[in-house]
Design goal:
152 residues; mainly beta; 5 strands; Thiol Ester Dehydrase, Chain A
């Protein structure tokens, strides 16, 4: 498989995400989350938050402006989304300005019904203006071997 394993341990250039109220509400709508913390700013502030509170999976929407160097040159038709996890130091709230980097953590190999695959483990780390980690979003990209596709 054509993945450049020498890039394990590298990261994308930092990119900034400005967390907006409208983005939080739109994300909550998209996932069917009716939590008032994500919709009613006065309510969120009354509960001690600095603004609307983003749903727990909101950081999945944080994307670097360019494709990750370790995925360049791979056949996109063989890439699938795998599992994700979120580890929070504190909630993401509207008004946050987060500096993010996507890190290439490791590569695992696995045999599946449709052949060999690589599990590309990445972690997005988002820090606040003080440099404190707010959330880490682990992402696994599955890269299937060339050959037959799984049955539909």
């Amino acid at each position: 498989m054509e993945l450049d394993r020498s890039l394990v341990g590298s990261a994308t250039a930092p990119f900034v995400v400005e967390v907006e109220k409208g983005a939080i509400r739109a994300f909550a709508d998209a996932i069917g989350d009716d939590n008032r913390l994500a919709r009613d700013e006065d309510f969120a502030r009354s509960k001690g938050y600095g603004g609307l509170v983003a749903p727990p999976t909101f950081p999945a929407s944080f994307r670097p402006p360019e494709r990750q160097p370790w995925l360049l040159g791979l056949d996109e038709g063989r890439i699938l989304a795998g599992e994700q996890y979120f580890k929070y130091a504190r909630p993401v709230v509207s008004g946050d300005v987060l500096t993010c980097r996507l890190h290439f953590v490791r590569v695992d190999e696995k045999a599946g019904r449709s052949g060999a695959m690589l599990l590309v483990v990445q972690e997005l780390r988002a820090a606040d203006a003080h440099g404190d980690l707010v959330v880490a979003n682990g992402r696994v990209v599955i890269y299937r071997a060339a050959g037959r596709l799984p049955a539909a």
